[in-house]
Amino acid sequence: MAIWEWTLEAYGRPGVADACLRLQDDFGQNTDLLLWAVWAEIKDPALLDRAAAAARAWDQVALMPLREVRRALKPPAPPVADAAREDLRRDVKAAELRAERVLLETLADLAGEARGGAHALEALKAASAAWKPAAPDAELAALAAALG
Fold first, then answer.
1. Residue 90, SS3?
2. What span, in angstroms and rounded, lies between the C-alpha atoms of 114 and 107?
3. What Cα–Cα distance (Å) separates residue 58 from each residue in 7, 72, 91, 103?
4. Which of 8, 135, 138, 145 could share a disulfide with 27, CB 3.0–4.6 Å?
C-alpha cells in the first residue's frame, strides 16, 4: 500500500490521532517521520538520520509555517467575517495536509523498495531517537499499540 493511503488508514484507527498529536505537541516529534518509519519498518540509524534531516528541512520550509497560520486562524479575527476566516483556515489546512503528503512521499522515495523488518515500536523508537530529543518510550508504545 502506498504511504499516503496507509497513513490515512492508520490515522483513522482509534487512538492514533490522539497519540500523534500528543507526540507532536507535547514532545516535539515529527509524526510524519514516525509513521513513515512504521510503514517502512525502518530502524537503520543512517537512513533515519537522512530522513530526519529531510523532515526538519521540510518542517522549516512548509509544514511549520502552514501549521502556524492554520492555528492563528482558529479564533475570531475581527473585522474579518467568521465564515471568511473559516474558509481560509480550511484552505490552509488542505495545504498543510498536502505538505505532509509531499513529505511522506519524499520519505518513501528515500527508503525505496526495501523494508527494514522493524516492528512498530522498534521503528518508532529509532525514528524518535533520530529526531532528537527522543519521546518517552511510554508515549511511543501508546502509538504502537494504537497502530496495532
1. helix
2. 12
3. 18, 20, 19, 7
4. 135
